[in-house]
Design brief:
Blueprint (H helix, E strand, L loop, with lengths): L17 H21 L7 H17 L5 E7 L2 E10 L4 E11 L9 H18 L6 E8 L13 H11 L3 E9 L28 E5 L4 H14 L4 E5 L12 H6 L4 E5 L21 H19 L11
Parallel strand pairs: 3-4, 3-5, 5-8, 6-7
Antiparallel strand pairs: 1-2, 2-4, 6-8
């Protein structure tokens, strides 16, 4: 399904507002801390992985959140998913999850993949702190998204989603923030798996909303909320999960448990030549665009969490 509600922004983007400038400064600081000062962070660089988790925890606690850790064993180490929660008012049993993985693949500092996603997650936590919505909203930083843990039981989001299913939690929608920091106005900078290049723009200046066929409602509701509030280009698709790239993040873990889930992304290697490379460094990030995107995604999270009890976000 390629037809999406609303219209992608096509006019020149306006200057950053004062609020967006603060978001810009904060996401830049988070990316530089994770990808420059801490650097490569995974089980082969265990001290850095722990340092990243401590930084995330401290940032969230400074915002007034109670941080809950889900610890599990991986590669002989104990690693953690970190979660905060804004409890819903009228439908607290219905849950929206917004997540981003904080590990980087072996051999890279992971500025875009995925310090950009974590930076947005932390800023969204700041923007929504103290706010209330009908549904419960959870913000989660996942460990171990990257290979060799991807698609295995040691993937942090897989551990988390499995626990949610065991507990009988009503996750109405999950959004994975994955590689959201690179944008360019260069023509023919955007690529796709066949045949999607026939339907989407060839300039890599947009934010992508991607889900499988079972999550089509969630894709549409998320991109509609983004387009309603945000002066930034956006494109969406609900495609079969086997299409290359469609399932390549933490949302895949929630599909395995029958939950609707989508990825929000700059499309990674379909646009970004530094994907999974040692050159994925902080100066490659388009911070003004990341700030706009982050502001818009806070609105998306609030809109989804504010939905009336029982309103569908997927094919039930």
């Amino acid at each position: 399904m390629i037809s999406m509600p609303g219209k992608s922004w096509t006019d020149p983007v306006p200057p950053l507002s004062d609020d967006e400038q603060l978001i810009h400064d904060n996401v830049k600081r988070h990316v530089e801390m994770l990808a420059q000062q801490i650097g490569e962070r995974n089980v082969w660089h265990a001290e850095a992985l722990v340092a990243a988790s401590i930084y995330i925890r401290n940032t969230l606690e400074d915002l007034g959140y109670e941080v809950r850790a889900q610890s599990f064993k991986s590669g002989g180490l104990t690693v953690q998913n970190l979660e905060v929660e804004l409890q819903g008012t009228t439908a607290p049993q219905e849950i929206i999850v917004l997540g981003a993985h904080y590990d980087s693949v072996f051999g890279t500092p992971g500025a875009n993949d995925n310090a950009s996603g974590v930076a947005a997650l932390l800023e969204i936590a700041r923007l929504l702190a103290g706010k209330s919505h009908a549904r419960t909203l959870r913000l989660v930083a996942f460990a171990n998204e990257e290979p060799p843990f991807y698609l295995t039981g040691e993937m942090g989001s897989r551990v988390y989603a499995a626990r949610s299913r065991q507990r009988g939690e009503q996750i109405k929608g999950m959004i994975a923030l994955e590689t959201i920091g690179y944008y360019t106005d260069q023509p023919r900078s955007q690529h796709y798996p066949f045949p999607y290049g026939l339907f989407y723009p060839n300039t890599g200046n947009f934010l992508g909303f991607v889900g499988n066929l079972s999550s089509w409602r969630l894709v549409r509701q998320a991109i509609a909320a983004f387009r309603e509030s945000t002066a930034f280009p956006s494109e969406g698709v609900a495609a079969p999960g086997w299409v290359i790239g469609v399932g390549w993040s933490d949302h895949w873990s929630f599909w395995q448990e029958g939950y609707p889930a989508i990825m929000i992304t700059d499309t990674a290697f379909f646009r970004y030549k530094h994907y999974h490379a040692e050159t994925d460094t902080p100066e490659k990030i388009d911070y003004p665009s990341l700030a706009r995107v982050t502001r818009g995604l806070a609105d998306v999270a609030a809109e989804l969490a504010g939905k009336d009890a029982g309103s569908p976000l997927s094919r039930e």
